[in-house]
Design goal:
Length: 778
């Protein structure tokens, strides 16, 4: 009974879950934003994850005996916290990989636990005292690898997949932590997680005069006596270092040591503030605007030349594409046990869905990307449409993006296909081949004699596109088709919405008008429309057993949001860690979302109209779903934040370029490391301990403003006025491990009782008496 998933759901109903508590993320980073040498694990291998049966009795874990959680007699709060921390360090293997916001790996093999805040860190510790509260740990891709023949010596594809490298040789990767405090910054040890007290023991990182360098990273410039103008704690004097990957600031004061570390890839623009004749303290320096909500300001002395030198090097290495230099991903040489580039195999994924079958086939017509240069090489198309007709269909669809299969229902055979808008224009052009194609999609589903066409755009925008030669399907031309507009706005509206959101969350939050200010950004309204659209698609396929076609204008922004979210609702495989990686590779990377243009990797043109937070909105929607279904996803919030941070970092090759064709041309799988290589090397950091596999269950999230909220753990993680709080999933992991240990002891006692009763009966020469085993639920 303890293994019954329904019982688990009930047993967890009264417990706090990660979705109901916000993880406070610091306002200043506190870990290394880059991989450092990994320590060896104490005790050998890491313990196995709790079994499904172990999850079943989680609800009873709250009934642990007092001795398992209470401090020994006479042990005060501080001593008890220290004992608990030492016990955790003995029983829980050190975390690998990107610092969670809890600490940082030391240079001499020690490793601190950390929470999930990438790309910037702050390390602070006072000798013999507790750390401060909250201290936790261009338009084409052709120039992305420019100059790499000399500067870069990336690992080969074979070396990436080598599993012979020991765990201690792998780095803990890029992240950040921030300084989180209450309204007034204090150093009370009672205001932060006991796990963070280990900072007092390991502070090697903050003692380094130079940043710990990644493989392939080199120092390009260093300026002493620079002042970091922190919007929360004031001015801090120190040394500023620029490498070909990051910006690194270390305070001159050792009490407390202060380290700030940010990837250059996260920089949106660099501006000079003040002139040589500027008066006033700290009025002459640099302002660095970041893509992840933050701004960083540094003051230089006017009499020196450090500002000019730092500015020139930042402009050179933060925007390498604009300077015909390789992105750091081509220089990075870390080796991981698994090759993340092999996570997604299109043939295997289509076979998992049962393709090919009697209605669908796999076509290699785009093997050389001649049919559509933004589509993958392998396409799933209706079996009765020959390749020659596919070419005529492509001529009628924007950018040649014909309707192709994304997903097929395993029972009803209803399908989700994606494409771009038809090129009907103001004259209302028609294409017999395109009409026949959609009819073939409808006929492949015997459960329904209708097909729904979901146009992501507002109807006004779709009509306006006719003037540009685009438009939408006419219900008169497409028999048995119903057209639905989902009213999701374009990339320019979304970019402006994010700009407004940044204004209200950083650096200060106006408490008195918070709700009205948040409403004025329309950010949650956009999230609601995207979720609601995906929900309608999933419902038509699951409940209506009807095939659907999804498109926007070009089919690589809003279309990707809708198809990937609807697949998450329909298919439990995509809710696993590896399944989600496959989903991103398939629906976003292989189908040509324009990451290079939307993010602007290495491009100094920050005002480019093509930039937009499309992928960020998708991840935000996924987070909203994890809140509503805390046991349905194998990954945790830290996993989502890590993906977003490396969307910008340019440390991995995963999000570089804008199409599969460009990635093949740039040889990214051979010359860069995949983000999935890093993540899959330390899955325990990204696993949701509450996860229960309901692979056949369909999720129906509530797409209502009443059930949506701002993702505080991401958008406001840099604000120190958030109360520091230990991630709930860490506490659950500890409870699960303790429960499994106690359950094992109970089973051993049951066997011992049975053995003793049997031997006692044999000695007495009488038939063995039946002894009922002790039924104890821990």
């Amino acid at each position: 009974m303890r293994g019954d998933p329904h019982q688990l759901r009930l047993s967890l109903a009264g417990m706090s879950t990660p979705s109901t508590q916000h993880t406070a993320h610091p306002a200043h980073p506190a870990h290394p934003a880059h991989p450092l040498p990994r320590p060896s694990r104490p005790g050998g291998t890491r313990p196995p994850p709790p079994s499904a049966a172990a999850l079943g009795a989680l609800g009873d874990a709250r009934s642990l005996p007092p001795s398992s959680t209470s401090p020994p007699p006479g042990c005060g709060r501080r001593e008890a916290g220290g004992l608990r921390q030492r016990e955790r360090r003995r029983s829980v293997p050190p975390r690998l990989g990107p610092p969670s916001p809890r600490g940082t790996p030391g240079r001499h093999g020690r490793f601190l636990r950390r929470r999930a805040l990438p790309l910037i860190r702050l390390t602070a510790a006072r000798s013999g005292a507790a750390p401060p509260p909250g201290m936790e740990e261009s338009s084409s891709c052709e120039s992305l690898g420019a100059g790499r023949a000399v500067a870069a010596r990336p690992p080969s594809g074979d070396s990436l997949s080598s599993a012979s490298t020991s765990q201690s040789d792998h780095s803990a990767h890029t992240k950040s932590a921030s300084l989180v405090s209450s309204d007034s910054v204090s150093t009370s040890a009672d205001n932060f997680s006991p796990d963070l007290r280990v900072l007092r023991e390991t502070n090697k990182l903050a003692e380094m005069e130079e940043p710990p360098l990644l493989p392939g990273e080199t120092i390009k410039d260093m300026a002493k006596d620079v002042t970091y103008i922190c919007p929360f704690t004031g001015a801090i004097r120190g040394t500023l270092t620029v490498t070909n990957y990051r910006l690194y600031f270390k305070s001159m004061e050792r009490d407390p040591p202060f380290v700030l570390d940010a990837s250059l890839g996260v920089i949106n623009r660099v501006e000079k503030i003040g002139g040589a004749s500027s008066r006033g303290e700290n009025s002459y320096g640099l302002e660095i605007v970041c893509k992840d909500i933050r701004n960083l300001r540094f003051a230089h002395k006017p009499e020196g030349r450090t500002r000019r030198s730092i500015f020139e090097n930042l402009m050179k290495y933060a925007f390498p594409v604009s300077n015909n230099l390789p992105l750091f991903a081509f220089e990075y040489k870390e080796v991981f046990p698994e090759n993340g580039w092999k996570v997604y195999d299109p043939i295997w994924e289509y076979r998992r869905q049962g393709i090919p079958n009697e209605s669908w086939r796999l076509s290699k017509i785009n093997e050389r990307y001649e049919l559509c240069d933004t589509y993958p090489a392998i396409l799933a198309v209706p079996v009765n449409i020959p390749d020659e007709e596919l070419k005529r269909v492509a001529s009628f669809r924007s950018r040649g993006r014909i309707p192709v299969l994304s997903w097929i229902h395993p029972e009803s055979q209803a399908t989700i296909t994606r494409c771009s808008q038809p090129m009907v224009g103001v004259s209302g052009k028609r294409s017999k081949e395109d009409e026949k194609y959609l009819q073939a999609i409808m006929d492949s589903n015997a459960q329904s004699h209708k097909i729904f066409i979901f146009d992501a755009r507002p109807s006004v925008n779709a009509v306006a596109n006719k003037a540009k030669g685009g438009g939408y399907e006419s219900e008169d031309a497409y028999q048995n088709a119903e057209l639905v507009f989902l009213d999701i706005h374009n990339i320019h509206v979304m970019r402006e919405s994010l700009r407004k959101l940044k204004e209200i969350v950083y650096p200060n939050i106006e408490e008195t008008h918070w709700l009205s200010n948040l409403e004025s950004t329309h950010w949650l309204e956009h999230i609601k429309l995207i979720l609601a659209g995906a929900l309608r698609i999933a419902d038509k396929v699951e409940s209506g057993k009807t095939s659907v076609v999804v498109h926007c204008s070009d089919g690589w922004d809003r279309t990707a949001q809708l198809t990937s979210l609807s697949l998450l609702m329909l298919d439990g495989y995509y809710r696993t860690i590896r399944g989600f990686e496959v989903l991103v590779e398939k629906e976003w990377l292989s189908f040509g979302h324009r990451f290079q243009l939307r993010v602007g990797h290495g491009d100094k043109n920050h005002a480019d109209a093509d930039r937009s937070p499309v992928f960020l909105q998708f991840i935000d929607c996924v987070w909203q779903m994890t809140r509503q279904f805390p046991t349905a996803f194998e990954f945790n919030e830290y996993f989502l934040i890590t993906i977003l941070d490396h969307l910008y970092s340019c440390l991995f090759g995963t999000f570089l370029c804008s199409s599969e064709q460009q990635r093949v041309k740039e040889s990214l799988p051979k010359k860069t490391v995949s983000l999935w290589s890093y993540i899959n090397s330390q899955l325990e950091d990204f696993t949701n301990p509450l996860y229960v596999s309901y692979s056949n269950h369909v999720l129906y999230p509530v797409a209502s403003m009443r059930h949506l909220e701002l993702w505080v753990g991401y958008y406001i993680r840099w604000n120190p006025r958030m109360k520091p709080q230990e991630p709930v999933h860490n506490r659950y992991k500890e409870l699960l491990a303790k429960r499994a240990e106690l359950q094992k002891k109970v089973e051993e006692l049951q066997r011992e009782i049975t053995n003793r009763s049997t031997s006692s009966s044999e000695r007495a020469g009488s038939p063995a008496q039946c002894v009922t085993p002790v039924q104890t639920v821990v």
